[in-house]
Amino acid sequence: MTIPLRHALTAAVLGAAALSAHAQVDQVKVWAAACANCHGTNGHAQPGMEALAGKDKDDLTQKLLDFKAGRKPATIMHQLAKGYSDDELRAIAAYFAAQKK
Ligand code: HEC
Fold it and tell me: Do the domain assignments include residue 14?
């Protein structure tokens, strides 16, 4: 009976790993949802607003870090960007860059 038990444990461990990877993706979606009010669902903005979907990842990252540091003039984004760590901003930029235009 030891072998099936070991298999069961392995499956449980693998399952937990898959779950935590899934949770990370969902966390980015939660962050990105906070941008949807202004930039549209998944970065598909209404006309007149900056779309984020499919933009260059490095460019988005740089803009967000610049907003946060106050290097890029803004009415709103400099305050919003301060709510995230640099790594979180990188993850958000990567998320929007990966969306289809
Ligand atoms: C309350 C509305 C609002 C929300 C919410 C918002 N933005 Fe913005 N965003 C703006 C405005 C307005 C600008 C133009 C710069 C400014 O005036 O702050 C902008 C500009 C940007 C730009 C620069 C676009 C460019 O090409 O110049 C990026 C990148 C960006 N936002 C990303 C985000 C991300 C990521 C989030 C979510 C974490 C977010 N925004 C949430 C209103 C918003």
Answer: no
Q: How many Cβ atoms from other residues are within 10 Å of residue 39's Cβ?
A: 19
The reply to whether 3 falls in a domain is no
Q: Is 64 in the pocket of ligand 1 (CB under 6 A)?
A: yes
For residue 64, give the CATH number of its domain: 1.10.760.10
Question: How do residues 12-70 score in pLDDT, each as one tens digit?
Answer: 666 666 666 666 668 999 999 999 999 999 999 999 989 999 999 999 999 999 999 99
How many C-alpha atoms does 6 have within 13 Å on its Cβ side? Answer: 3
Residue 85 Cβ inside 6 Å of ligand 1? The answer reads: no
Does the CA dihedral 95-34-89-80 come out positive or negative?
positive
Q: Considering the domain boundaries, does residue 9 fall inside one?
A: no
Atom of ligand 1 nearest to the CA of 96: 35
How far is C-alpha 64 from the chain's CA centre? 12
Query: Residue 35 belongs to what domain range?
Result: 25-97
pTM of the model: 0.83
